[in-house]
Design a protein that fits this description.
The chain has a three-stranded parallel β-sheet with strand order 4-3-5, covered by helices on one side. It has five helices and five strands. With 155 residues, the protein is an alpha/beta fold. The longest helix is centred in the middle third of the chain and has 29 residues. The chain is elongated, with a radius of gyration of 26 Å.
């Protein structure tokens, strides 16, 4: 990827989005847990990197330029998409149950030693392992069934 194709830093984009939405570097700094000079510097570096002014600065505050408005809309939509995706993943991680059906040997010698790793990746999920030699999809509810045989399973 060439330098002209590289994305600006996420920190600079967040500072820009916050300052644009709040029309204030000071309010953006407060929201981001930063300082006004730090937000101003991040926006200045973003403007230098892009080669266009994003804000018109005055003693009364800041307003977006036309280029700033274009970038703001794209950054806002992108950050909203990222927020939605991370919220979805966090919700999946934090709730629910997972039932795994397999035979006793596989559960004992392969699955159980790896269960702690699964719990670490999905800490809020209640994992239940059921051992069965005669799994029946209609009778036994399972999120995952690990079966051995010729592949002719009851449906």
């Amino acid at each position: 990827m060439s330098k002209s194709e590289a994305l600006p830093s996420m920190q600079a984009l967040r500072a820009f989005e916050s300052a644009a939405r709040l029309a204030s570097f000071t309010a953006a700094a407060r929201e981001l847990g930063s300082t006004q000079p730090a937000v101003s510097q991040q926006v200045f570096q973003l403007e230098a990197e892009l080669g266009v002014p994003l804000f018109e600065r005055s003693p009364r505050g800041v307003t977006l330029t036309h280029d700033g408005e274009c970038l703001y809309e794209a950054v806002r939509l992108s950050l909203d998409t990222l927020r939605g995706a991370t919220a979805t993943l966090r919700a999946r991680r934090q709730h629910g149950s997972l039932t795994i059906v397999t035979d006793f040997g596989f559960a004992t010698y392969w699955l159980m030693p790896r269960l702690a790793g699964l719990k670490h990746v999905m800490p809020g999920v209640d994992v239940r392992v059921v051992t069965s030699q005669d799994y029946d999809a209609q009778r036994d509810h399972a999120d995952i069934a690990i079966l051995f045989g010729d592949g002719h399973w009851p449906s």
